[in-house]
């Protein structure tokens, strides 16, 4: 469990996005100073400096200091990027993530910004599970990308291993976020729940954007030694069906490790709970209560 955190100056890339906004909110609420580097502004959360993270010069310039924003960062949360496969061509998605992640890690290394947290993804653990997972619930030991997007995330984690080897003072935490739900996304639940097969591809996982923001804050404060990859998901699945029933129906040949309790998530968040004190506070049940 992390010790009481000092106040930090934190650079956030992609701070105008779904996870980024909640990360800026969480960091600010905890008393940290933040700067947002993104291609588009989020005015309600302070000034955004327009930075393209695929351009190394822009990333270095942003981190060394910008008029009215300053520099001297203690920590980086790197969230900039196209948020999944299919939102651009495969090559665009792949190149964007690989370039940005390298640029951010390398700039941080050169500038002595030793606390780095970045968005990896649940997708690299075998989605869309054309080949079933080797066991359930899946955990961080799995790395089997099937898409260009997930391959870029896997390479990001490989870069993280390498940067901490090159610079042992660096701490890099890869947060393997599940499918992120902002407030408006809960409106899609009825169609998901009517067609459970539509979410077999990600084991019915999800995570509220506010819990993602909290996880980024905890990871920045913890600065775990070396490189760690942690799954960040909700405690439950998106369905109102017991997880043991889902596993038996959709993955009949996959061994289940331990006992699946109720609607327990099929993504293990035990490591994040143990190493960060991560505790998801939001579930779809609270968000949909009272709706017809
Ligand atoms: N949304 C999900 O379900 C999910 C799940 C797992 C991992 N992730 C990862 O989390 C990160 C954030 O995702 P999100 O859901 O907040 O996405 P989002 O699209 O809401 O936010 C991403 C932000 O990055 C910015 N951006 C994109 N390319 C950029 C560039 N080259 N330079 C600077 N800024 C750039 C965008 O303007 C946007 O504000 C991404 O790396 C994504 O791959 C997302």
Structure, explained:
A seven-stranded parallel sheet has the order 3-2-1-4-5-6-9, sandwiched between helices. Strands 7-8 form a two-stranded parallel sheet. The relative contact order is 0.14. The protein is of the alpha/beta class and 292 residues long. The radius of gyration is 19 Å and the shape is globular. The mean pLDDT is 96. The protein contains nine helices and nine strands. It has a single domain, classed as Rossmann fold. Helix 3 (90-111) links the parallel strand 4 (75-78) and strand 5. Nicotinamide-adenine-dinucleotide binds at residues 13-14, 16-20, 38-40, 51-54, 79-81, 83-84, 96, 100, 119, 121, 177, 179-180. Nicotinamide-adenine-dinucleotide (NAD) binds next to helix 1, helix 3 and strand 5.
């Amino acid at each position: 469990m992390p010790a009481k955190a000092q106040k930090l100056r934190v650079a956030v890339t992609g701070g105008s996005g779904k996870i980024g906004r909640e990360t800026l909110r969480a960091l600010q609420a905890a008393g940290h100073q933040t700067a947002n580097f993104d291609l588009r502004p989020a005015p309600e959360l302070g000034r955004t400096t327009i930075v393209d993270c695929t351009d190394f010069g822009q990333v270095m310039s942003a981190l060394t200091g910008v008029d009215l924003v300053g520099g001297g960062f203690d920590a980086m949360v790197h969230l900039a990027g196209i948020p999944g496969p299919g939102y651009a061509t495969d090559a665009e998605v792949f190149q964007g993530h690989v370039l940005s992640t390298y640029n951010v890690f390398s700039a941080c290394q050169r500038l002595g910004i030793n606390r780095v947290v970045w968005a990896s993804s649940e997708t690299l653990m075998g989605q869309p599970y054309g080949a079933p997972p080797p066991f359930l619930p899946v955990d961080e030991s799995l790395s089997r990308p099937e898409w260009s997007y997930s391959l870029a995330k896997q390479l990001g984690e490989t870069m993280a291993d390498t940067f901490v080897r090159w610079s042992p003072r660096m701490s890099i935490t890869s947060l393997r976020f599940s499918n992120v739900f902002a407030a408006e996304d809960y409106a899609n639940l009825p169609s998901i729940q009517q067609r459970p097969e539509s979410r077999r591809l990600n084991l019915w996982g999800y995570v509220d954007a506010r819990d993602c923001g909290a996880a980024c804050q905890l990871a920045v404060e913890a600065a775990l030694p070396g490189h760690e990859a942690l799954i960040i998901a909700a405690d439950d699945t998106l369905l109102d069906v017991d997880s043991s029933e889902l596993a038996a129906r959709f993955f009949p040949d996959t061994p289940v490790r331990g006992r699946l309790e109720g609607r327990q998530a099929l993504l293990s968040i035990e490591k994040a709970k143990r190493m960060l004190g991560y505790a998801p506070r939001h579930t779809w049940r609270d968000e949909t209560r009272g709706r017809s």
